[in-house]
C-alpha cells in the first residue's frame, strides 16, 4: 500500500533532556494547530553530549555533540526532522541535511543564577574568589575579562542537575541561558540578566533550529508556518560569522544582532581563554545580505587579531 503524502505520519526527532522535550513538544503542538488532520509523533534519543557528563565539552570535541545521533536517524529515514536549540547545531551540516526552519527567538541573553547566600549580589559585587559554574568557553572568556577576581569552574549536566549542584553549595553562582530557564518555567531563578556589553550570546541562542533532509519538499512545506524571518536573518548572519571563523560550539565566540528598518547590525567577539585579549567589532547592512555580513565581520575581526587567538585556542583544546 502506497501512503499518500497527505496522510503520512511525520516523525519528529528529539533529545531526551527535559528542555529538548519542552521545545520539541512546543513544535509538535504548533504544527498540529496548522495541520489538524496530520499526525506528528515524537521519537527521542540520547546524544553523545548527553552521555558524557564528566568531561568538559571542549575536551570531547565540538562536532555535533548534541546532534549526530539525530542526524543519522534523519538520513536513515527513521525520523523526518529534528528540533535543536539552534546554538547546538553545527554550522557545517552533513550532506543531505539542511536547516529547514528557524523559529522566533526568545531572549538570547545569558543569566546569572546564585546560591541563597549570594541573593543580594550581582556579578560585579560577588566577593573575590566566588566560584561561578559554566561549561561554555564563550561565557568563561568574557566573564574572566570583566571579572578577573572571580573563580570559574566547569559544570555539566541538564539544568536541574546544575541547579542542584548550586544548591549543594558547590558553586556561588552558575551561568545559564535566559531562554532555557524561561522555556522550563523557571524564570524566577534568573537573578541577573547579563547585559550584552559584558557577555555577547552564543550563535543562535534563544532560537530553535529545525533540521531536515534536503530532498523532502513535503517536510519543508510543513515547517514553513514556524519560520520567523527576522530571527532567521539574524541567525544566518551569526552562523555565517562562526562558520567563516571555523569555530565550533566550544570556542569563545559571541554575537549580538538586531534588525531595524531592514538594516541588520551584527556585533561579534573573539576572546582568549584567559579573557585578557578580547576583540569585538560590528558591521551593518541589508538583512537580505545576512550571510555576507557574517563573512565581512569574520574577516574584520580576523584582521584585528582574532585568527591568532583562535589558533592558540585550537592548539590548547587539542592538548
> Low-confidence stretches at least 5 residues in length (pLDDT < 50)?
49-61
Strand-pairing-aware structural class = alpha/beta
Percent helix, as a range, is 25-40%
Q: Quote the distance from N terminus to C terminus.
A: 55 Å
**Main pleated sheet:** 5 strands, mixed
Radius of gyration, whole Å: 20 Å
Shape verdict: globular
Secondary-structure element order, N to C: EHEHHHEEEEHEHEHEEHHEEEH
Average pLDDT, to the nearest integer? Answer: 91
The share of residues in extended strands comes to 15-25%
Spatial strand sequence of the major β-sheet: 2-1-3-10-4
Question: Layout of helices and strands, plus pairs?
Answer:
Elements: E1 10-15, H1 18-34, E2 40-45, H2 48-51, H3 57-60, H4 68-75, E3 81-85, E4 97-102, E5 110-114, E6 131-133, H5 137-146, E7 151-153, H6 159-167, E8 173-177, H7 178-183, E9 192-194, E10 208-213, H8 217-223, H9 229-244, E11 253-260, E12 263-271, E13 278-286, H10 290-318
Parallel strand pairs: 1-2, 1-3, 6-7, 6-8
Antiparallel strand pairs: 3-10, 4-10, 5-8, 5-9, 11-12, 12-13
Helix pairs in contact: 9-10
Give a short synopsis of this structure.
The chain has about 325 residues and is an alpha/beta fold. About 35% of the residues lie in helices and about 25% in strands. A five-stranded mixed β-sheet has the order 2-1-3-10-4, sandwiched between helices. The protein has a five-stranded mixed β-sheet with strand order 7-6-8-5-9, sandwiched between helices.
Amino acid at each position: 500500500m502506497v501512503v499518500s503524502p497527505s496522510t503520512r505520519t511525520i516523525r519528529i526527532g528529539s533529545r531526551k533532556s527535559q528542555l529538548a522535550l519542552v521545545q520539541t513538544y512546543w513544535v509538535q503542538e504548533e504544527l498540529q494547530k496548522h495541520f489538524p488532520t496530520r499526525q506528528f509523533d515524537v521519537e527521542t534519543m540520547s546524544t553523545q553530549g548527553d552521555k558524557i557528563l564528566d568531561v568538559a565539552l571542549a575536551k570531547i570535541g565540538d562536532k555535533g555533540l548534541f546532534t549526530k545521533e539525530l542526524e543519522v536517524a534523519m538520513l536513515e529515514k527513521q525520523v523526518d526532522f529534528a528540533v535543536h536549540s539552534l546554538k547546538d547545531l553545527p554550522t557545517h551540516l552533513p550532506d543531505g541535511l539542511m536547516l529547514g526552519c528557524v523559529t522566533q527567538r526568545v531572549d538570547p541573553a545569558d543569566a546569572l543564577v546564585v546560591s541563597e547566600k549570594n541573593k543580594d549580589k550581582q556579578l560585579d559585587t560577588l566577593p573575590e574568589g566566588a566560584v561561578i559554574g559554566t561549561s561554555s568557553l564563550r561565557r568563561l572568556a568574557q566573564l574572566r575579562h570583566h571579572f578577573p577576581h572571580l573563580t570559574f569552574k566547569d559544570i555539566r549536566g541538564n539544568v536541574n542537575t546544575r541547579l542542584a549542584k548550586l544548591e549543594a553549595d558547590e558553586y556561588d553562582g552558575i551561568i545559564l541561558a535566559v531562554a532555557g530557564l524561561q522555556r522550563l518555567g523557571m524564570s524566577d531563578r534568573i537573578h541577573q540578566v547579563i547585559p550584552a556589553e559584558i557577555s555577547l550570546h552564543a550563535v543562535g541562542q534563544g532560537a530553535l533550529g529545525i533540521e531536515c533532509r534536503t530532498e523532502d519538499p513535503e517536510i519543508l512545506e510543513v515547517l514553513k508556518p514556524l519560520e520567523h524571518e527576522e530571527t532567521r536573518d539574524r541567525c544566518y548572519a551569526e552562523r555565517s560569522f562562526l562558520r567563516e571563523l571555523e569555530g565550533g560550539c566550544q570556542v569563545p565566540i559571541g554575537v549580538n544582532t538586531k534588525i531595524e528598518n531592514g538594516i541588520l547590525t551584527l556585533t561579534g567577539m573573539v576572546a582568549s581563554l584567559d579573557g585578557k585579549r578580547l576583540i569585538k567589532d560590528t558591521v551593518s547592512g541589508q538583512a537580505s545580505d545576512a550571510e555576507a555580513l557574517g563573512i565581512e565581520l569574520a574577516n574584520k575581526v580576523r584582521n584585528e587579531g582574532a585568527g591568532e587567538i583562535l589558533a592558540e585556542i585550537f592548539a590548547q583544546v587539542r592538548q
